[in-house]
Structure formats: structure tokens, C-alpha cells
Amino acid sequence: MSVVIDITGLPEEHVVFSPSPLAELGAALHALSEPAHHPGLHGWTTTTLAGLEPDLAGRLSEADILWRSTRSDILLPSRPRPGATLAEELDSVDTLNDERYVRAALEINCSADYGDEGPSPLVDEEARRRALERAAARGPKRLEFVRHLLADPPAVRAWIRRLLEDCDRSFFADTWQRVRGQLAADARHKTDLLRRRGLAEALTAVSPAIAVEEDGGGRRMVVDKLAQGRTTAVDPAVGPGVTLVPTAFGWPHLLVLHAPGWRPVIEYPVASRELRAGPGSVEVMERRLEALAHPVRIRLCRSLARAPYTTGELANGLGITAPEVSRHLKVLRDAGLLSTRRHGRYVQHRLDVTVVARLGSDFLESVLR
User: Fold this and answer.
1) Helix (H, G, I), strand (E, B) or coil at 218
2) Exposure class string for 215-233: b at 16+ Cβ within 10 A, else e
3) CA–CA separation, 359 vs 84, rounded Å?
4) Gap between the Cα atoms of 99 and 161, Å rounded
5) Which of 29, 46, 187, 347 could crosslink 67 through cysteines, CB 3.0-4.6 Å?
6) Are the beta carbons of 117 and 56 closer than 8 angstroms?
């Protein structure tokens, strides 16, 4: 599974690396609403939440459908190069018509129609029903917010802008001042890599989960995620290009805006102490979990976690044939869960406990990516 961005024929100068104060505020609001996703930000989230005025905290709770389970597209840059200030980017959001704004604002996780160019819930009764149904599943407060947005888009849009401006005054201006230098430096570094070594190497530096694939004259960015989606970076209606936005609040998320009719955006976490080597790919994580989903292999792991054993020893211990043990060991070895070494004529196998110990965090990183 992956999100694919078609970049066939796209000049590399149309790939833009740039910080976005609006995207960073969206990432910060998500971290405040889901602090368990971001253990490395515990100090910041705790201090910021404790310092919020009750009125602002209440309004954030009303609107968190915009950033809690997923990030609404209105909180990502809609122009090739993000604005230098939050006000500039909010001005850009204000240029969207109501139908486009509401459709983007109500993008809610688990929505199967994200990749469809369907009508806005402002003009289509079925789209409206689906939006209200998804909001209702998240509680009465979110449902009331969505009802107000559908009933009076201009008023709620103005309310959302004031809310984001109040966040800026309350905590985000100081936060942005602290992180923007790091984000700008990262964007400059990736831009330099792009110019000197090409797109593939620049994207590898962004994340090992992003690759460039080419075949039959086509070229595409492929983002390894537990999600499927497809868009193009050469849509004549929106102009060619992809925008890549660094964030100090993003890990473990790798966010991809791939809605039809929007310029593709990838928001990626900058390197920090919180980052570590993950499973390499979603496929590797799935293969490792599948390898352990068998009672015989679980029993083999019990022995192999304690000491190295030969195939014959394991067969005798489990009361099964050596060929059957070999088949199970191959599955574990192919998944990267075993180490094997030879001592004379004996071949010993042992569980790689370091890899197994990471499985829980690898799983969580993969599903949150």
C-alpha cells in the first residue's frame, strides 16, 4: 500500500522545500490533541496545555475535528511556496470558495471518498449526510461544529481564523520563533541536495519511506504508508509541482495531501532525538508480524530467545520433524527475526531480540505514518 504522486515530465525546479507556519500550527494542534502519538513532545504539550486560557482551550476542543484524527487540508499550504507568516497563509486560505473550503475542512479519517472529485456537502445531500454521520461518530460537540459549518460557512470560517490567530498569540508565535530556523535550515539542505544530487537522493534524505520510481517513460514519487492514494503533480488546473514541508512536531507522521485538484504536499518530520531506525517499510513490519502469527513459530521463538539452537535440537524439543522446523525457521529468517551462525558442521539459530523488542514501536510508527 502506498500514496503515489505522478511526476512524469515535472521539472525538478518545481519541487519546493519550504517551512509553513500554517502547517506547523496544524501539526502543533494535533500534538496537543493526541499527545500519546508524540511522546518526545511531552514537555512541550504538558506546558502548553497547562498555560491555555479556559476559553481558548474550550474553543480548541470544539474545532479539533479539523486536526485530531487527521489534518484537514485547509491546514496545509495551497500555494507552491508557503507564506512567510501565518497571516499570509490564512489570507491564502480565505481565497478558497465556500464549497472548496468546507469539503477540505471536513476531510475526516476513514473517509473512503477522499480521492474522489465528488461534490461539496454544501451542494450535495448525500455528501452532507456522510459528513454529518462521520462527525456524529466522533461525539455531539464535533457534530454541532459540523452542523454550524454547513449552515453558515462564512461565519464559521471567520471563527476558525480567529481561533488560529488566538493560538498564535497564546503560544504559537513563541513556538514558531523557536523552530523556524531549524525548519528553514532543513529546507535549504534538502534544496541543495536536490540541485546537486537529484530528486531521488533529496527524497531519501526526507524519509526512507519516500522513493522515486520510473518505468515506461513514467516517473512517480511513492510514499510507503498503510494507505492508498494517487494524484498528479502536473495537473494544469493547479499548476505543476510538489511542496515538501518540514515540521518539528510531525514524527511519527508522514502526511501527504493528495486530494484531487490540490497541489500535492508532503509534510515530513525533521531529524530529532525522537527519530530512530524504524522497520524500513510497512511491508517489512507486516511480514514480521505475520511470521510470528503461528503457534509453532511462537514456540520456536521461546527457545531461540534463550540460546542458539540447531534445527535438530529444535525438532527434538518440539516433537516435530527437522524439515518442518526448517520451513518455520526460513519464515522467521526471511522476516529478519533470526540470526544464524555456523560452528563447524553445526548451524545454530538465535532470535534477534533487538528486532523483536522494536516490533511494538515499529507497528505503531507504521500505522501512524
Assistant:
1) strand
2) eeeebbbebbbebebebbb
3) 40
4) 17
5) 29
6) no
How far apart are the C-alpha atoms of 12 and 9, rounded to whole Å? 9
286's CB contacts (< 8 A; 6+ apart) are none
Cα atoms in the Cβ-side hemisphere of radius 13 Å centred on 48: 24
Strand 265-269 and strand 242-247: pairing?
Answer: parallel
Q: How far from 242 is each of 1, 78, 127, 156, 238, CA to CA, in Å?
A: 21, 11, 28, 30, 11
CA atoms within 13 A of residue 292's CA, in its CB half-sphere: 18
One digit per residue, pLDDT tens: the chain, 369 residues? 789 999 999 999 999 999 999 999 999 999 999 988 888 888 999 999 999 999 999 999 999 999 988 889 999 998 889 999 999 999 999 999 999 999 888 876 445 567 677 788 998 899 899 889 888 888 898 899 999 999 999 999 999 999 999 999 999 999 999 999 999 999 999 999 999 999 999 999 999 889 999 988 899 999 998 878 899 999 888 889 999 999 999 888 899 998 888 899 999 999 654 444 455 678 888 888 899 999 999 999 988 988 888 999 899 888 999 999 999 999 999 999 998 988 888 899 999 888 888 788 778 777 777
**DSSP assignment letter at 13:** G
Locate 81 and state its grid cell: 511556496
Which residue bears the cell 479519517? Answer: 109
Single-letter code of the amino acid located at 238: V
Identify any residues that bridge with 222 across adjacent strands, giving them in sequence order: 4, 211
321 within 8 A of 339, measured Cβ to Cβ: no
Strand-pairing partners, residue 350, are: 339
Strand pairing class (15-17; 242-247): parallel
Residue 214 phi/psi, 5-degree rounding, is -135, 140
Q: Can you spell out the DSSP letters for 28-92?
A: HHHHHH-GGG-GGGHHHHHHHHHHS-HHHHHHHHHHGGGTSSS--GGGS--SSS--SSHHHHHHH
| Alpha helices (H) in 137-172, listed in sequence order | 140-151, 153-167
